[in-house]
Structures are given as C-alpha cells and as structure tokens.
Amino acid sequence: MPSIAKPIATHPSLGRNELGLTIRDYEGSMSTLCAGCGHDSVTAAVVRALWEMSLAPHMLAKMSGIGCSSKTPAYFVNGAHGFNSAHGRMPTITTGAAAANRELTYIGVSGDGDSLSIGIGHMCHAIRRNVKMVYLIENNGVYGLTKGQFSASADVGSKSKRGEANRMSPIDPVMLALSIGATFVARSFSGDKEQLVPILKAAFAHRGLALVDVVSPCVTFNDHEGSTKSYLYTRRHEARATETDYVPKATEILAELNGDGVTSVTMHDGSVLRFRTVPTGYDPTDRQRVMAYLQERQAKGEVVTGVLYLDETVPDLHEMNNTPEIPLTEVPYEKLCPGADALNKLQEEYR
Amino acid sequence: MQRNSNGSVNDFAIKLANVNGTGSASANGLLMQAIFRMGIPVSGKNLFPSNIQGLPTWYEIRVNNDGHTARAINYDLMVAMNSQTYGRDIKEVRQGGYVLYDSSWPLDKSLYRDDVNFMPIPFARMCNERFKDSRARTLMKNIAYAGALVATLEIDMGTVEALLDERFAGKKALRDSNLQALKIGHDYAKEHFNCPLPFHLQPMNANGDKVLIDGNTATALGCVYAGATVAAWYPITPATSVMDAFKEFCEKYRRDPETGRNNYCIIQAEDELAAIGMVIGASWNGARSFTSTAGPGISLMGELLGLAYYSEIPAVVIDVQRVGPSTGMPTRTQQADLLSCAYASHGDTKHILLFPANPAECFEFAVESFDLAERFQTPVIMMSDLDIGMNDWVVPRLTWNDSYRPDRGRVLNEEDLKKLPKYFRYSGEDENFVAPRTLPGVDAKGAYVTRGSGHNKFGGYTETPSEYQEVLDRLAKKHAAAADFVPSPKMQMVDHAQFGVVTLGGCDLAVREAIGVLAEQGIEVDYLRICGFPFAKSIETFLNQHAFNFVVEQNRDGQLSSLLTLETGVSKEKIRPILFYGGFPLSASQVVDAIQSQMEK
C-alpha cells in the first residue's frame, strides 16, 4: 500500500468541530488509487462524517483486509491506529480488537472480494455476533488489483471490460445480511455523498454491527457499458428508498418528527435517526417487509439505497458476553489472577 | 524388557477394555483416583476412539513404586468387558497374567489361553438382577468391575467409598446404587478367587505434595493466572477441554463480585482462521489473548500466524497435538506438528515454541508463553499433545508466586510518547531486537498502520529491497535472541556416557525410565530434554559432546531431528532418530528396544 504524505496546509476559514479540529485533521495520506475511483469519494465521506461527529482521532481504529478498498484506511484519520490485515480476515481481527477494547470506535473497510468471497464466512459471523463496528463494503463488482476478474457481487449479464458476461448469480450483501439477522443495513452510492455522510453517522451511532454497502465504481475495470456497477448505471438505477437525517444526542429536537411518511428511531446512544421520506408502508424496523420490498425493487433493476433496516434492541458482542463497562485491557491484573491461595484451595479438588 | 511383576507390590499394569459411551470412564477414573489417594505413583491412559458411542475403548492403569508411570505395555491384568475385542485383548496379557471378564455369556473356546488365569464374573447377570433401569444396568456393570478390582488388587475400600461420597454428594440414591454395584463385584471376587492377586497394592506416601490433573486443565489454569482476557477458539479434539476448563475457571474466578460482569470474553469462532484473527486483534489492542487448537487448526492458522510474525503482534496458541496428517486419528497422540509450527506460514517465518512434558509444565509454560509473546511481540505456540492434555497425570502440586506481574514487553504509554520527537513502529530496537509498540486509543502520536505488506523500519509501506530486508533481518535476530528466554533444556549427565539421548515433551517419563533400564544393563547415557525453540546454545553443545545422539520423538519423519539439523551447527551424523508414531503414549520398553536394536546395527 504505497502512500504519499499530504502537505499540511490549513486555511483559517476552515471550520472547527467540538474538539477544535478541522476537517484536515481527519485526513490521511494521499490516495494512490486510480483517479476517479469511487473509493476516494467514500473516504471523503468517512472523513466528513467523523469530523462532524467530533470523534477524537486516536479513539478510532481503522481495520481492513486486502484489496483496493482495504488500502483506504491509510487515506483517512492519520491520528488513528490502522490495521491493514489479510485478505478476508478483517472481521475476525476487528472482533478480537473490539472484544479487548470496547472504548474505541471501529470502522472496517472491505470490498466485495474481501467480504463476499474469501471472507464471506467471517463477515456473516461478525454480523451474527453483532460486533459494534461500521462494516463498510466498497462494492464495485470486480477485482481491481488483479486486473478485472468478476467478483461475487457481479450481476448476471454484467459484462467485463473484455466483453465477457457474468453468468453466476450475485451475492447481495444487503439481502445476505438481512437474512442472518443484521441489525443495521444500509446501501449507498459513492457518487452520493449527501446521502452517504448521514448514513455513516447513523452507522457509527448503531448499537452493534452496521453494514453499509456502497456501490463504488471501479473506473479502470468496471465502468464501461454493460457493467451494472458503473457510475452511469448506478446513477440511472439508484432508487433512494429512505432519506435520513442523523440527529446527534446533544441536539435538542424541536419539531415533532413523526408525521406522514416520516419515522424516527432512537439509537442506542440516544441519538435519533430521522427517516424523512420513506415509501408508503415502509417500516425500516420490519425485517420481512424490508426484504420483500428490496426483492421487488431489485427485480425491477433498481439499486435501492438508504438506511434500509435498523434494530436497536439486539445486544452487541459485549452485552451478550456480559463484559465490564471498561475495556478488558483496563481491568487490573490483580482482578484477573486468582492468586496462590486460590490455587492451593482449588487443588484440593485434584486430589 | 520385562518388569518383575510376579508377586510384586505396587508394580504392575492393568488394561480395561470397554465399549465407549457406556460410562466406563467414570469407573476407570474412580480406580485411578483411589490408587492415587493410597499414595502410590500411578498413571491412567485413556485410549479412546473418535466416536460417541459403541466403539472399543481402553484404559490403562500403571502403578510403580519407583515413580515410573509412563505407559507400560505388558499387562498383568486385563479387564475384558468388550466382547468385540476379546480376541486381541486376551492376547495382550503377559504370560502368567490374569483376564477378568464378564461371564454372563460363555467365552468362545478359541479365546482361551493356557498360560493366563481367567477370572469369570457374571457382571451383566448380577447387575440385571439388582437394577431395573436399562441405563443403570449398563453403568453399574462398570462400577461392579471396579468392585472386583478393589478386592483383587486390595484397593482401599474406605477410599473408594469416600470418593463415591464426594462424587454423589447430595444424590443419595445414586451413591447407594453405586455402592451396591461396587459390593456386588467385590463380594463375588472375594468369594470365588484368591484375593489379593500376587501383584496388588499397598498404601504408600508418595503423593502428599502431588495432584492428579490433566494437561488441558492445567493449561487453562495457566492462561487464567497469566491474565488472559480474550480467548477465541474453534472446537477440535483434543484441544476442546482447554477452553472448557478456561471457561469453568473464568466463571469461578473472573466474575467481578461488585459488578457481576465477566472479566473475560470467550468467543467460539467460525473456524480457526477466525480464532487466530481474533487473538491477533485482541493482542494488537493490548489484551492477553490465546487460542487452543490441534494440527488441523494450525494448518488453517498458518496465514495469520505469518501476519502476526511480520507485523510483530503477540499471540499465544496452544497446540494439543494429535495424529496427522489430515484428519488423521483425532483421539490419538503424536508430536508431528513440530515443523509446521516452527515455520508456520508462507515466506520466511519462525516462531517461538514451548514443549511442556506434563501438566505441571503446561501450567508453568502457559504463563511463560504470554510473557514471551509480549516480550518478543510475536506468536508463541505451546505444544502439548493428547497424552499430556487429556490424560490425568500425577504431578507436583502447582505453585504460584503472588509477586508475579505480566511482562508486557516494550509498550509506550502517553508519557513515553510525549518524550519522543516522533514515533516509528519498527525503530528503536533493544538488545533483543524488539522495537517498542504503541496501543490504539492512547495517543494520536503513536498511531501507525499495522500491515502485513512490505514495510520499512518506520512502519511505512515499502517495496525497496534494502528497506524490506532491514526489517526481515531484524526479525531473524529477534527470533534467535529468544533462545535465551525460552525454558532451558533439562539435562541429566553421567560420567562416561556412551551417547546422548534427546527428546521433548511427553516422551520424558518413558525415556527417563528407559535410561534407567539401559543403565542397569551397563549402558550409561546422558539425557537432554528440549523445552523450547529457538534452541538454546547448550543444546548444540550437548549434541556435539557426544559421539552420537538418539533423538526420541513421536512422528514418522524425525521432525525434531530435522529441526536440530536445520537450526544448530550439529552434523547430521550425530543425530539418530528413534521414532514412534502409532498414536499411543510412549512406553519405556519401546524406547529400550529401539535403542538396543539401533545399537546392534
């Protein structure tokens, strides 16, 4: 993952967040991805979301596997530890990291190769464990670093750059996640930052694992005619199912939010996710109906985006394991070691 | 090699042949524990199938007043309770030995031997008369043969009764039926045979400071005492009981009395890839974390062990070895993961290995594994095996020094970081070639991207040969430096040794007993037991001191021999592998026979 340091130049006019940091403080090294890569737009959205949320940079942990998407943690929040691990294994490493230190905010950046092929099992089980993290899939339907093989998210009939059509049915991370009990499922488009930033903020506020599938076109290998993961195709077929505002906990909510076609969900941390527009009868907390709706729209060739499903009632990994409120890494050793007397007493059972 | 077992006290071996899933383990454990409480050196080996119910299973008990408790394979007494295996079981009894069998059904004439004594007892018939429930009839048959052994071997009845009281505390009905069954067998034997048999037991006082414990339990206890908080695993024989025990101890010792919260997190992973990934993630964040597995798991963990090695993250892996290759024989023992663990993963990788020889060392080495992993910021694999892990061993009482504090290695805190002009992950190594690490969540100044891709000493990505090599060379030196920190080899030297005998792990008892037998025959040898890898310098010195060395290990390919050849300057001619790999624990007679036959060559 080659990286080039960005020159530090801050203009006094740059806004400051609650921590007094500018958006530049949330940037990373210069991207080495192809010019126009969707992933860079996603990175920019992540930077904005974190800056707006005023997360202290060192309290973020940036996790990734291998692939173009997995390079991007180097391109945001230099002040955070990152872990560019092994292909497909990001969910496992994040699960362990989260188990050890629950105080950090985890973002895992993955791609469709990383999460839907080599690491699909790990993704599924991280979802089942409801590890508190934002699980971002930068989905472009193609293997970029190895030069253009189809990935498991390529649609049937979608054409490779060489003109070959994919014949195997795709794995849709959104439907897959919903079917195995995911508690936060969203889809967005890298070209739609206006939508992506609030989705990310809501994802960070979620109680457990927030899966965010972002269609993020590969300009080099999968942005041609015949591709269903191109900018043009996605722009033409994107259907925003929901539009959401993320209202932080501290903000006083003045207006009555629940009106016609409007619903709001209080997140576990007290913030509110306000669904501004939703289709008639769409309930983002009703898993079966969400799945039926998505299938119906997908059959029509639409790429449905927005926060699609949300359940704040399911406990996360830590709640399920009844771990302490402080990170396990901070429990003093004296509390972990039973000591010599206990060992002596215990051994009476081994006589 | 022949043991003197005609008319001997506290020196004999018995084998119990059963059908698995019928409750025989409970009766066999009872016998073993009773003998232990009589203060007699004893061992019990469970030779069991990879099956839940219906296949043959054996248990062997050896008592020896000199403390030799490796497996003994010339049986003085066979308790033949499985008609499926009568043929081979009866064949295995030594001349003049005894066969105790269930005579509810007649024994096929062809199975009789003239040179052994048969002791027919109608266990099934008696139990069917006494007990109504069919499950009870099956279970109590086992306790009944235990009763017969109490009579024939002079096992202390009071001790057995006390054990039943402890086992069935609060379950009077069960206790009573067990006692009844015990008496059925006992009384029948007393009435029909000359009790005791020529070989039998007599109380001793050899176990005052000993405990009866299996290696997996002791390992788990070590992990608790070391302060491990995050454990991730995938179920696998024979390592599963490590995590079962860890959980049990955590429930007992790690539930915060004030908050009711668990000061631990155990995650049953989706596979071993995930288990080691979780360990690496937790360790990256500064927790003490471990996984327990066996050979197939090691194969899967290879990928991420390389990541931890190259990105320098501590990780503790407990490998309870079983028989390979592939699925192999999951319930049988071997030491065949040595090479795959030493160099686990693609590319140039080397790991730190520890080789405990018994459950007491499992406890001790488990704690050391965490200290070494953190000190050297690298994976440490503690290599136990099925024999050590799943059998009950009599070992010295485990001890703990309350002044112990974990060696967290070089970790920079906020203060340390303040003093540095700039922090670079892989710079500033100490005399052991370890560079200080930082933990996430401490200070933005310590932030860096951990990566398994090529990196330079600053932690940055590199594809430049010199930068890449600089880091890789330091890693080799770091690994070599660990030789002085792994547990020292154990040596037993004599004057005028004819050759050296080298081994590791659970072979210890059998090999030391064999050395005693050889000495009786006038063959004096020096003994070396290797306890860790990388190899201490003294290992090479020992090997060079001798004209040649027999290297005793439990695998086909002489993996320890290979490792010694690869990792020391010793010439190949000095190393003569003595190999056992059938899957059962080693016995001294096998070692003596193999050494003698090699010497004749």
Compile the SSE list and pairings.
The complex is a heterodimer of chains A (351) and B (601).
Chain A: H1 38-53, E1 60-64, H2 68-71, E2 81-84, H3 90-100, E3 105-111, H4 112-118, H5 120-129, E4 133-139, E5 142-143, E6 149-150, H6 173-179, E7 184-189, H7 193-205, E8 209-215, H8 231-237, E9 238-240, E10 243-247, E11 263-266, E12 272-277, H9 287-299, E13 303-310, H10 317-321, H11 333-336, H12 339-346
Parallel strand pairs in A: 1-2, 1-3, 3-4, 4-8, 7-8, 9-13
Antiparallel strand pairs in A: 5-6, 7-13, 10-12, 11-12
Helix pairs in contact in A: 1-7, 3-5, 4-5
Chain B: E1 11-19, H1 24-37, E2 42-47, E3 56-64, E4 75-80, H2 86-92, E5 93-102, E6 117-121, H3 123-130, H4 134-153, H5 157-167, H6 172-192, E7 210-214, H7 215-226, E8 230-233, H8 240-253, E9 265-268, H9 272-284, E10 289-293, H10 295-311, E11 315-321, H11 338-342, E12 352-354, H12 359-376, E13 379-385, H13 386-390, E14 392-396, E15 411-412, H14 414-419, E16 437-438, E17 449-451, H15 465-481, E18 490-492, E19 499-504, H16 508-520, E20 525-530, E21 532-533, H17 537-545, E22 549-553, H18 559-567, E23 575-579, H19 588-600
Parallel strand pairs in B: 1-4, 4-5, 5-6, 8-9, 8-10, 10-11, 11-13, 12-13, 15-16, 19-20, 19-22, 22-23
Antiparallel strand pairs in B: 1-3, 2-3, 7-14, 12-21, 18-20
Could you characterize the architecture of this molecule?
The complex is a heterodimer of chains A (351) and B (601). Helix content of chain A is 30%, strand content 19%. With 351 residues, chain A is an alpha/beta fold. Chain A has a single domain, classed as Rossmann fold (3-Layer(aba) Sandwich), CATH 3.40.50. In chain A, the strands form 3 sheets. Chain A has an 8-stranded mixed sheet, with helices on both faces. Chain A has a 3-stranded antiparallel sheet with strand order 10-12-11. In chain A, strand 5 and strand 6 form a beta hairpin. In chain A, helix 1 crosses helix 7, helix 3 runs parallel beside helix 5 and helix 4 packs across helix 5. In chain B, 56% of the residues are buried. Chain B is of the alpha/beta class and 601 residues long. In chain B, the strands form 5 sheets. In chain B, strands 9-8-10-11-13-12-21 form a 7-stranded mixed sheet, sandwiched between helices. In chain B, strands 2-3-1-4-5-6 form a 6-stranded mixed sheet. Chain B is globular and about 90 Å long. Chain B has 4 domains: 182 residues, 3-Layer(aba) Sandwich (Pyruvate-ferredoxin Oxidoreductase, domain 3), CATH 3.40.920; 184 residues, Thiamin diphosphate (ThDP)-binding fold, Pyr/PP domains (Rossmann fold, 3-Layer(aba) Sandwich), CATH 3.40.50.970; 58 residues, no CATH class; 111 residues, Rossmann fold. The chains are: A alpha/beta (351), B alpha/beta (601). The interface between A and B is large, with 64 and 76 residues. Strand 2 of chain A pairs parallel with strand 17 of chain B.
